[in-house]
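Q: A reviewer asked whether we had any structural model of the full assembly, not just the individual parts. We don't, so I'm hoping you can provide one. Inputs are below.
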Amino acid sequence: MSDQSKRAPLLPTNSDRDGPLFFVIVIIVFLASLSAISAISALQNVQHWQNALRNEMTVQIPSGDQAAAERTARILSQIPGVVSTRAATRDEAKALLEPWLGAKNIPDDLPIPLLVYIQLEKKSPASLDVLTTAIANAGINASIDDHQQWANDLARSAKAVQFLSISVLALLITASIAVTGFATRAGLAARRDLVKVLHLVGAKDQIIARLFGGKFIIMGLKAGTLGTLLAMLSVIGLTISGVGAASFMGGATQPGLSPLLALLPAPFITAAVGGWTAYRSVMDSLRKNT
Amino acid sequence: MSHIGLRYGNGPEILKDINFTLQPGSMQFLTGPSGAGKTSLLKLIYLALQPNRGFINLFGQDVSISSRDELALLRRKIGVVFQGFGLLGHLSVFENVALPLRVTGKKHDDYKDDVKDLLQWVGLGNSLDVSPDTLSGGEKQRVAIARAVVAKPDLLIADEPTGNVDLQMGKRLMRLFLELNRLGSTILIASHDLSLIRSVNADVYTIENGTLTLKPVKKTGARNE
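A: Here is a predicted structure for the entire assembly that you could use as a starting point for your response.
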């Protein structure tokens, strides 16, 4: 005779329809995780670019006069708020053109503008006006760029990607709620015998709803863990292969693997969404149909 | 139960103006030809159906204005032996019988021995772990009866409870019902079996063409035999 020390689950744990549903949830979590990584990477990239560009300016000497470039660097380095300056050489300027013109297609007499790089203090950087005035007072023909136009364009692009990623994430969460709700109602219909008997022995709706909610919490945890792991491995693989998580943003920066940490709660969120959706679906169905 | 009328969909009225009172602690039979509405009447009493008209008052509570939670609590006072048994194949015999206790939140250790004793009593002490799907009709019926009585309900409703068991087991199960009745439970048994009805000193209601009448039946036995 059995000891009957362990209670059997009232809801059968293995059902034929659970397999496909499990993989649908895995796929949804996988895609949602990639969307989340994309959104986080976009946010990190915007911050990274803005921090980097906030402390840099570039002076362009259109004449390509090396002496003028070095004089400009010397003058600007003495202005408060400037940490350092460096005049680029003609070879560096040529190197910048090589991707478009080729290494051997730049004649020696081609006038190439030279650049002077300015590194500003973080706390009290010199303003664009001060630097422009200093160059003008020195009688040097040069233009100065604080990179704000470029930074703003990139930030707009990054925010667009971030918005898109969050939208996809929201759609996937909605899809997971819809799939779970549909599966719960189908499961409830398939288990009409169980629901009927439970009702007639005095089970409250909440008890029946908790059975289905509990089942989807466990399924959500398992599927969420698998989907999240697959997403993490994909990103790690891309990073190792040199594409990286930042490729979602066009590869402008490399934020590393830190966005992966944000995925750690994903299985628990999946479980909570699945459990809550199943619970609500059962409560609604029971009220409407019994 | 007063002025109860019941119809399925737009069909004819199955039950017509039923007026019926079950006195607490009484034992009563319900009989009548097949299709007369016995099972429908029982379903109304165990709250599986709502009447189209009339009022059902159960344990002093008007069920038409009771919340779903209140109805669940009322059902816990009722034990039901279904004609189709209503056993769950994915649970063992033990788990099926323990179900009414389990849904009330009782701990496994608190009811384990009672369930085993009851199953022993109905002759299924060696089938605790098997699925009801593997049992014969008579064995299933005994499991269904054990489940109906395990929580010592205030009201026991049984739909043809001895239809699938042999005479000896039928008498044994009747003794179980009588014992439950002696302990204070109200018993209502729907049956075609006149010998069973005559063996017990109880009121007999007959349902015919949707109407209910109390008819005397010649007794052949004592109530507490």
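A: Points you may want to mention in the reply: The longest strand of chain A covers residues 114-120. Chain A touches chain B at residues 1-2, 4-5, 7-8, 10, 12, 193-194, 196-205, 207, 286-287 (CB under 8 Å).
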